[in-house]
Design brief:
The protein is α+β, with helices and mostly antiparallel strands. It folds into two domains: 1-114, L-fuculose-1-phosphate Aldolase (3-Layer(aba) Sandwich); 116-270, L-fuculose-1-phosphate Aldolase, CATH 3.40.225.10. The chain contains eleven helices and nine strands. It has helices at residues 8-22, 39-42, 78-81, 85-88, 117-130, 143-151, 156-166, 170-173, 189-198, 219-239, 250-260; strands at residues 32-37, 53-56, 68-72, 89-95, 100-106, 136-140, 178-181, 204-207, 211-216. It has a nine-stranded mixed sheet with strand order 2-5-4-3-1-6-9-8-7, sandwiched between helices. β8 (204-207) and β9 form a beta hairpin.
Length: 270
């Protein structure tokens, strides 16, 4: 078997967690990532039939039966992933209708996956129905998006339009907009179910007074979605108290749709 620490998917996961910590999105043990992997990707690095131990997931996801995920661990600091990936990350395979996760690699200190694992898996199941190429769910706490939920209307259309107006690229990067959940208790199946429902119509879901969930085809795309929304929120927080003299009009955003071949969420532009 090849050294799993040299696997492209593991190298990219380490780079991403390190970058997210450097951005200030994942203080302490805040935030989590799950990456869907095919058995073809992992077979050269480990035997999917060799199970280190089994972990109860506390939920059901029959549509994810047999799927493998590289996921961050509960209580783990993103800053430490680069130094000890085998402790802070784990590779699991879902069985028993999603009720059991077979640990194939990682969590070498006896740990387990993030407490948000149910929310991640529910979002994966939903996004795979929308886009079969979806492979990543990412949660973090970007300061400006979080701050925005204290001072801005949480109506999804209004929230999205504000972000779109802050930066020209926003409507190009996330034309499906941003969905918003009011504050809910984290680490529960209830918030997982609510987030998955929101994932039916958008790849970004803001958790008010908490953070954001993003989904995408790979780690770069998902990181970039959150990065772009966070930049827009930063601009908003810098100018919200000032008189607004200019903005990006709906007419101009329609020009961006035509230029970049995207389509804004139906009914969210005039």
């Amino acid at each position: 078997m090849k050294n799993i620490l040299e696997a492209p998917f593991l190298i990219e996961m380490v780079r991403t967690t390190t970058n997210m910590y450097a951005h200030g999105w994942d203080e302490r043990n805040g935030g989590n990532i799950s990456l869907l992997l095919s058995e073809e990707e992992v077979k050269d690095y480990l035997d999917p039939g060799t199970v280190l131990r089994e972990i109860s997931t506390g939920f059901e996801a029959p549509e994810l039966e047999g799927k493998c995920f590289l996921v961050t661990g509960t209580g783990k600091y993103f800053k430490n992933v680069q130094y000890a990936p085998e402790v802070n990350l784990g590779l699991v395979k879902l069985t028993d209708g999603g009720k059991t996760a077979q640990l194939l690699w990682g969590f070498s200190d006896g740990g387990k996956f993030t407490s948000e694992f149910p929310a991640h898996m529910m979002s994966h199941a939903t996004r795979l129905k929308v886009d079969p190429q979806n492979r990543v769910v990412m949660h973090c706490h970007p300061a400006n998006l979080l701050a925005m939920t204290y001072v801005h209307d949480l109506d999804e259309k209004v929230f999205t339009r504000t972000l779109w107006q802050m930066c020209t690229e926003c409507i190009v990067v996330f034309p499906d907009g941003v969905n918003v959940l009011p504050w809910m208790l984290c680490g529960t199946n209830e918030i997982g179910i609510a987030t998955a429902e929101k994932m039916k119509t958008a790849r970004l879901v803001v958790w008010a007074q908490h953070g954001i969930y993003g989904a995408g085809k790979d780690l770069d795309e998902t990181f970039g979605l959150i990065e772009t929304a966070e930049k827009a929120a930063e601009i908003y927080m810098k100018i919200a108290h000032l008189p607004l003299k200019n903005t990006i009009s709906d007419e101009q955003m329609h020009l961006l749709e035509e230029r970049f071949g995207v389509k804004a969420r139906g009914g969210w532009l005039d």
